[in-house]
From TrEMBL:
<dbReference type="InterPro" id="IPR036869">
    <property type="entry name" value="J_dom_sf"/>
</dbReference>
<dbReference type="GO" id="GO:0005737">
    <property type="term" value="C:cytoplasm"/>
</dbReference>
<protein>
    <submittedName>
        <fullName>Molecular chaperone DnaJ</fullName>
    </submittedName>
</protein>
<dbReference type="GO" id="GO:0051082">
    <property type="term" value="F:unfolded protein binding"/>
</dbReference>
<feature type="domain" description="J">
    <location>
        <begin position="4"/>
        <end position="68"/>
    </location>
</feature>
<dbReference type="InterPro" id="IPR018253">
    <property type="entry name" value="DnaJ_domain_CS"/>
</dbReference>
<dbReference type="InterPro" id="IPR001623">
    <property type="entry name" value="DnaJ_domain"/>
</dbReference>
<dbReference type="Pfam" id="PF00226">
    <property type="entry name" value="DnaJ"/>
</dbReference>
<dbReference type="GO" id="GO:0042026">
    <property type="term" value="P:protein refolding"/>
</dbReference>
<keyword id="KW-0143">Chaperone</keyword>
Amino acid sequence: MTADHYAALGLAANASLADIKKAYRQKAAFYHPDRNDAPDAAQRFAQVQKAYEVLSDDEARQAYDDNRRRNLLDDPLQTAQEIWQAYSARILSSS
């Protein structure tokens, strides 16, 4: 499964550019490897950077959104399973 850029920033798909910038600043500051000792901090930081790179560019965001919708429609069962697995993993890791 490809990374969900909206989830990486903790945003809904209808987020404004201002919301994207704000979420990016918060997440980047939190996951920056110099400030966060977690073993996955560098990986999470890279995901946040990539998400911002895509979602802050109008053309890249449109292409990402189109591809996201197309993938949802191509195999909805697989998409639902991937969403559930990602959600379950987040819930279990936060416990």
